[in-house]
UniProtKB/TrEMBL annotation:
GO molecular function: glycosyltransferase activity
UniProt topology in membrane: Single-pass membrane protein
GO biological process, one term: fucose metabolic process
Family designation: Belongs to the glycosyltransferase GT106 family.
This protein's name: O-fucosyltransferase family protein
Compartments it resides in: Membrane
Location (main, coarse): membrane
Taxonomy, superkingdom: Eukaryota
Gene Ontology CC annotations of this record: membrane
């Protein structure tokens, strides 16, 4: 109870306030323009957009609406305006950062921002401090007037950035970046249908299941399977990541070490055992947010046997409804994001931007009163590796281990990013 009282004594405080005095410089005093390529999937792009606003503020620069770079896996060509409410984004931040929709008309060499080295700031270190931008990037922007910055994945730190800049990042993430109304409305429908599946209003669990082929391959962990499956996975890894694979002889010991350290994705069956040990019954309604699970129905069978009420957005929506969103794969990811956000219990099975953003949102918006379960995969690997452990002992260990892993706000640790835990930077005492 003491933990709950501590958690609920905090409230969001990154929103724009009516009495807030703007320190935005005039248009004539702006340092220049910055152009950002937001790379990766939806959630990595979201973080990049937040960071882009932050560095524009640091340098008193004007931000050109970020371009969502084509995702190499999904080949998705979604534009900012296809997924986010541009008007709300610009208006909400108008007292913080000057944002324009497009490259200024007076700049006639627009292709240079995509191709020319002369117009690109490269070699920004990961998690760079704010001062790095002032010392190394700002002079080039003042000289050239417009500069592109790429790559831009994790190029701004956390504890080496002023508090007001971190709070601005939260303002962007939690308040300025809104999905289009059509996406929000469809997500509301899916959440309502999820609650009404049994004819009565019921709570539901959202499970972010990260067990796609690419994730399994990239993890370089070992999983249950036939010799043929293991040989095919080895061939896939060798083709995709030849430098890491080498001849494969070192990977077995590495896989064991990673599993002991909790760095391997949980298999569908493993998360099923954990949820049953936590007391969730086969009647539990579970919304699954996932790509195509590696191993298909056979891999999903143990989880489905334990929890037969597993559904996806494709099960809840009509073909016509889903077809509308298939034009942009990112829109489908946004639906998963919102339905998970609205759930009574959220469960992650592996790290990544999706899960930490969901947990961060629930903490920030007061949804920490609803559980967000982050399994301790290191301890779980020890339990799963003991074939003689009685079920009662396993249940006790799972319950004790996860008593404090339910998504309550915690103080943000040094070097610990604020997307998962915004308390220290973006929340205030209630």
């Amino acid at each position: 109870m003491a933990e709950l009282r501590h958690a609920t004594s905090w409230k969001p405080c990154a929103e724009r306030r009516s009495d807030e005095i703007s320190d935005l410089v005039s248009e004539n005093e702006t340092s220049g323009y910055i152009f950002i390529h937001a790379e990766g999937g939806l959630n990595q792009q979201r973080i990049a957009i937040c960071n882009a606003v932050a560095i524009a503020k640091i340098m008193n620069a004007t931000l050109i609406l970020p371009v969502l770079k084509q995702d190499q896996i999904w080949k998705d060509q979604t534009k900012f305006e296809d997924i986010f409410d541009v008007d709300h984004f610009i208006n909400y931040l108008k007292d913080d950062v000057r944002i324009v929709r497009d490259i200024p008309d007076w700049f006639t060499e627009k292709d240079e921002l995509f191709t020319s080295i002369r117009r690109t700031v490269k070699n920004i270190p990961k998690y760079a401090p704010a001062q790095f931008y002032v010392d190394n990037v700002l002079p080039r922007i003042k000289e050239k007037k417009i500069m592109s910055i790429k790559p831009f994945v994790d190029r701004l730190g956390y504890d080496n950035v002023p508090m007001k800049i971190n709070r601005l990042r939260c303002r962007v993430n939690y308040h300025a970046l809104k999905f289009l109304p059509g996406i929000e409305e469809m997500a509301d429908k899916l959440a309502t249908r999820m609650r009404n599946r049994t004819g009565n209003v019921n709570p539901y669990m959202a499970l972010h299941l990260r067990f796609e082929k690419g994730m399994v391959g990239l993890s370089f962990c070992d999983f249950a399977g036939t010799r043929e499956e293991k040989a095919m996975m080895a061939e896939y890894r060798q083709k995709q990541w030849p430098r890491r694979f080498k001849n494969g002889s070192h990977l077995w010991s590495l896989a064991l070490e990673k599993r002991k350290e909790g760095r391997c994705p949980l298999e569908p069956g493993e998360i099923g055992f954990i949820l049953r040990a936590m007391g969730y019954t086969k009647e539990t309604q579970i919304y699954v947010a996932s790509g195509q699970v590696y191993g298909g129905n056979n891999r999903m069978a143990p989880l489905r046997n334990m929890f037969p009420n597993l559904v996806t957005k494709e099960d809840l929506a009509s073909k016509e409804e889903i077809e509308h969103f298939k034009k942009h794969v990112t829109s489908l990811a946004a639906l998963d994001f919102l339905v998970c956000l609205k759930s009574d219990v959220f469960v992650m099975t592996h790290g990544g931007n999706f899960a930490k953003l969901i947990i961060g949102f629930r903490r920030y918006m007061g949804r920490h009163r609803l559980k967000s379960i982050k399994p301790d995969k290191g301890l779980m690997s020890k339990f799963f590796g003991d074939p003689y452990m009685p079920w009662a002992t396993f249940v006790e260990d799972v319950m004790i281990t996860h008593q404090t892993r339910t998504g309550l706000p915690e103080a943000t640790f040094p070097h610990y990013d604020l997307w998962e835990n915004p308390l220290s930077h973006c929340m205030c005492r209630a």
